[in-house]
Amino acid sequence: MKVLVINAGSSSLKYQLLDPDTKEVLAKGLCERIGIDGHIKHTPTGKDVYDADRYMPDHEAAIKLVMEVLTHNYYGVIKDMSEIDAVGHRVVHGGEEFTHSVIIDRAVMKGIRDCIPLAPLHNPANITGIEACQDVMPNTPMVAVFDTAFHQTMPPKAYIYAVPYRWYTENKVRRYGFHGTSHQYVSQRAAEMLGRPIEELRIATCHLGNGASTCSVKFGKSIDTSMGFTPQDGLPMGTRAGAIDAAITEYIVDQRGYSGKRVESALNKESGMLGISGVSSDFRDLEAAAAEGNERAQLAIDVFCYKVTKRIGSCAAAMGGLDAVVFTAGVGENSATLRAKIMEGLEFLGLKMDPEKNNVRGKEAIISTDDSPNKILLIPTNEELVIALDTARLVREQEAAVKED
């Protein structure tokens, strides 16, 4: 089976063509500047990269271009579109309606549209990507895989905010959590690497990149996570403030004469590591600047690591103990320095980092000492594989059900 995984943004479209049975990536790529001018970078496994400016007025044009390069006689990896058995779409927000991945039909599309107020920047782009694929491949089954679905196992005490309850019942204000496919994947891989059933493990997963979140995965299920109603909550990130006192918004409106929208923009795009350091939102730039003596860059790193350390402690409290910590995503996978700094002071939880084993980038490894009672792991995330596996499973189940009828 071959599954095309689509992750559509407002002006971009990431894709991978995978075989979920062998977990082989046949090709991957990125279409960007859609609706502006257009550029595609297509990377077929074992072949030359196709990197070119190509005009894409809309997402349908981008999908058609993806089909063109996938079936190209030199850059392609399939003979024609009929070899694509299914399409899996990343959808950011599924609200409370979608607790699992689902085959896309009219009712599902309505449900995704109903969640637009909860993710006004993301769900419309996801819908555009789905509709573009449906136009180009009308007979190919499609599946929606939701960032929020993995966290729908959280109990009410973890997701209810202490605000008027009618805000929840009438306006759907609650903790939803994001990065769900990443947290799901790395927790499952951690169990496999440790040779233990996930049903008996308490794992703190740390997805640390430009966007960052932690998750308490108890016996295979998310019971708490740091991101909240939006991806703004929780840890400080590249340009996002993370959790702050809500009254700061009104105070800054009064003190600086900002509108509410201006404050929201500042909290999302001018805060976090960029806001503290004044240097960059990229942790590589921050580490370089800190090494040269930039105190604000060092402060940004200190704040980030301190907040992650606290969140790991919170995970242990939420789960009644801790068996493993997992680092993933750009920073988690590639910065040995930040991983070590985050783990400082957590020895009381039975977590002992091995400096030599920690000296690794971007590959699976157990980086705790051999005698560490609990384990620390580095696991590169693979959200596309999760989407492909879910897509293949649902399509096969649907085909089996049709045959039985």
UniProtKB/TrEMBL annotation:
Residues at which Mg(2+) binds: N7, E383
Subcellular location(s) of the protein: Cytoplasm
GO cellular component terms given for this protein: cytoplasm
UniProt keyword terms in alphabetical order: ATP-binding, Cytoplasm, Kinase, Magnesium, Metal-binding, Nucleotide-binding, Transferase
Gene Ontology BP, a term: acetate metabolic process
Record-marked site positions (Transition state stabilizer): H179, R240
Highest taxon above the source species: Bacteria
GO molecular function, one term: magnesium ion binding
Pathway of action: Metabolic intermediate biosynthesis; acetyl-CoA biosynthesis; acetyl-CoA from acetate: step 1/2
The record's free-text note on cofactor binding: Mg(2+). Can also accept Mn(2+).
Similarity-based family: Belongs to the acetokinase family.
Protein name: Acetate kinase
Protein's organism: Evtepia gabavorous
Gene, per the UniProt record: ackA
